[in-house]
Amino acid sequence: MKILLISNMYPSKDFPSYGVFVKNTEQILLDNGVSVDKAVMTKRTGKLGKLVGYASHYLKIIASGLTKKYDYLYVHYASHNALPLLILKKLNKRVKIVTNVHGSDVVPEVPSQEKFQPRVKELLHRSHKIITPSPYYKELVQEKYGVTTPIYIFPSGGVNFKLFYSFSTKEEAYKELNLNPKQRYIGCVSRIDVGKGWEFYLQAIAQLEAESLTDYKYIYVGSGKDEPKFKQMVQELNLADKIIHFPLLPQSSLAYVYNVIDAFVFPTIRKGESLGLVGLEAMACGAPVIGSRIGGLKDYIIDGQNGLFFEPGQAGELKEKLRLFMESSAEQKENMSSQAVKTAKLYSVDEISQQLPTIFFNEV
Question: Which of 93, 260, 337, 340 is most buried per CB count within 10 Å?
């Protein structure tokens, strides 16, 4: 079987985390004997760079679809790749498209993304198969677009347990991150962008610390358009001594972060949070997830067992859940940690690796 992998997000040396799950799905296909060509974009900066990049990317998609024979065209991110695929489908009706939809594909995060919705709908109706990361997202796609196209679930490449696991000793992790091994940490890993909930994380910390100083410090890993606002809020809330901010890190470094934190906070308010793979990666390292009761998080967080829920956007409730976790006994925390690892194993690459090729090999 031969597949053309299409995505406007793919890792590069400068941006190793950008679309890394796309590369992970590629590797799963390769490991299962599937031949994969690529029409992918790495991260571009500046308007001109993006314009040239997308023009070249679109031309490659159309040219590859017309001049080469593939069993399937497998696309990640319907919104930004629909246009060339719809053109290609008109020029060559025999091409079979498998569309893997994520996040803002279905639930636009900002008004400017709404313009893609008519093309997304058309692409999904013209696709041979659809892949979503979670049961929650599958229902969302069915309800919004009324598609009759078969929809399959595949959790975004899965959790790589060769990378994400609970270290037997944490010394290396503290050393790599230049952190104090005697200090206790809570962590969050996310882009600093609209809908990610970073402001509620900071507000909850400020409220908690104002009521009673804790012996915790709080890690935030990420960069984004709202980073200036993030830094300003840290200062306004007098959290400079409590917040440790790292920029975007490669996955190998994220494993260190997950191993030094007692719990992972996932404060998203996005209805388009199609799975939340970072939460599962944190769980694999033994960190329970204190997360918003929203999106794909509802499919794997079990309140009180492997994590805690709070209502999206409610900083006060997040504060209380942080307090509840901190005041839990060592035995309760250890039980939550063990349950978190068990949950993550259900999403491990080894556990799910056959699901993706099966989707392609099973004809409908």
Answer: 340
